[in-house]
Amino acid sequence: MGSGLDQRGIPQAVFDTADYPDSDRERMFVHVYSLAVLVEILAQPVHCRIELCQLPQIHLRVARTSAQRSIRLPETIRMDRHDFVGIVLLQRGAIRGDLNGATVEVGPGEALVADFGTPSSLEHSDHELITIGLDRALVEQRLPWLTSLNGTVVARQAAEPLFRHMQELMDRIRADRPLRPEIEAQALADWIAAVIPAPGAAMAPSRRVADDGRAFERAAAYIEAHLASEDLQPSAIWKAANVSRSRLYRLFAPVGGVARYVIQQRLLRAHEALTDPGDPRTISAIAYDCGFTNVAHFARAFREAFGVTASQVRSGAETAVSARDVA
Fold first, then answer.
1. Would you state the pLDDT for residue 63?
2. Which residues pair with 127 in a beta bridge?
3. 130: β partners
4. What pLDDT, in 10s, does the model give residues 86-117?
5. Residues 88, 134: contact at Cβ < 8 Å?
6. Which helix (DSSP H) or strand (DSSP E) does residue 134 occupy?
7. What number of other Cβ atoms are within 10 A of residue 109's Cβ?
8. Three-state DSSP class for 115?
9. In this predicted structure, which of 121-135, 263-277, 305-319 has the lowest mean pLDDT?
10. Which pLDDT score, from 0 to 100, does residue 255 have?
11. Is 201 helix (H, G, I), strand (E, B) or coil?
12. Which residue range is the domain that position 172 belongs to?
């Protein structure tokens, strides 16, 4: 199992049975899974690949695994202290079984709310899934209604925006793109609140939730393509996304608003350029090319976002090149 803390401060680990001899794969599979559940293998040959990473108060787990039954007993719960509420996004396969006395059945594209502080016995076919584990403290503070929804299955159309957000987030984490873990954690909690609102709250119809996800993607794609333009204004964005002004602002509210999102994307692009040792542009040129019209404003915003100056980031990239050249 490979593990470590990347340069963005995100703990990550990967486990893959393919890294072990055939004779050891079943033993390692059971060993890794038994850290949280009792596991019963239901099919041969055994295969399992798990990616783990952590944002503040949120644990992310991507798994591709052969068929198995996982059981959480009261004794296990008392001992392991895995006290979190999970949102399980099932990409392929099926899940069925018992979750604290409630019968559940989950199909591809659906999401399951699962309180891991309660007993369960769940049978998984050969599957792929993403689990968002929310620390109990975060749930109590931001999403207190989730515990009452234990065992709830969110339909495919309603869950679709959360699936897309998670896939995009995992792609950025894997690609080592610059991001701020605390901002990503806040945005993810906001997305969960939008897709799985409190009982009795005004719930958007599932079709509208899915349409909002597509509209957000259109707006985000336009922003990405026009980051260098000084004319990247909300009026241009809502026209490109074919939405009203008020709807555009509502779509971007979970990520801090349109203006904040644009600034974040410009800073991320600048950071990516500054860490590329093959990019010959000066810091000022990169700032202008990323849509900043004032270098001093860029410098302040960059330091606030990443905790270091643009010069320090550029020096780190140059140092890495020098080290490789010397080697």
1. 95
2. 65
3. 62, 89
4. 999 999 999 999 999 889 999 999 999 999 99
5. no
6. strand 127-135
7. 16
8. strand
9. 305-319
10. 72
11. coil
12. 1-198
Closest CA to 197 of 159, 239, 249: 159
Give the per-residue pLDDT at 5. Answer: 59
pTM above 0.70, yes or no: no
Cis peptide before 254 (omega within 30 of 0): no
The helix (H) or strand (E) run that includes residue 275 is none
* Strand ranges, E, within the chain: 2-5, 11-16, 38-41, 48-55, 58-65, 68-72, 84-92, 95-99, 102-106, 111-115, 120-124, 127-135, 153-154
Q: What angle do CA 176, 179, 182 make, to 5 degrees?
A: 130
How many C-beta atoms surround the C-beta of residue 321 within 10 A?
12
| CB 245, CB 257: distance < 8 Å | no
Domain-embedded: residue 36: yes
36-to-32, 80, 81, 254 alpha-carbon distances in Å: 8, 7, 9, 32
d(CA 109, CA 90) in angstroms, rounded, equals 6
Locus of tokens 């199992």:
1
Pairing, β 11-16 against β 48-55: antiparallel
Q: Quick one: pLDDT at residue 252?
A: 83
Question: Reduced to 3 states, what is the DSSP secondary structure of residue 63?
Answer: strand
Distances (CA, A) of 188 to 106, 154, 182, 293: 22, 17, 10, 31
Token duo for residue 167: 């896939």
In a domain, 176, yes or no: yes
User: In the structure encoding, which two tokens stand for residue 132, read together?
Assistant: 């968002």
Structural domains of the chain, count: 1
Average per-residue pLDDT for the chain: 85
Q: Is residue 280 part of a domain?
A: no
Is 209 among the domain residues?
A: no
Tens-place pLDDT, residues 154-173: 998 888 888 988 988 898 88
Percentage helix, strand, coil, to 5, in the chain?
50, 25, 30
Q: Helix 181-195 vs helix 156-174: angle between axes, to the nearest 10 degrees?
A: 170
Encode pLDDT of 190-217 as tens digits. 888 888 888 765 444 444 555 666 787 7
CATH code assigned at 146: 2.60.120.10
Residue 113, pLDDT score: 95
Rounded to the nearest angstrom, the gap between the alpha carbon of residue 144 and the centroid of all alpha carbons in its chain is 20
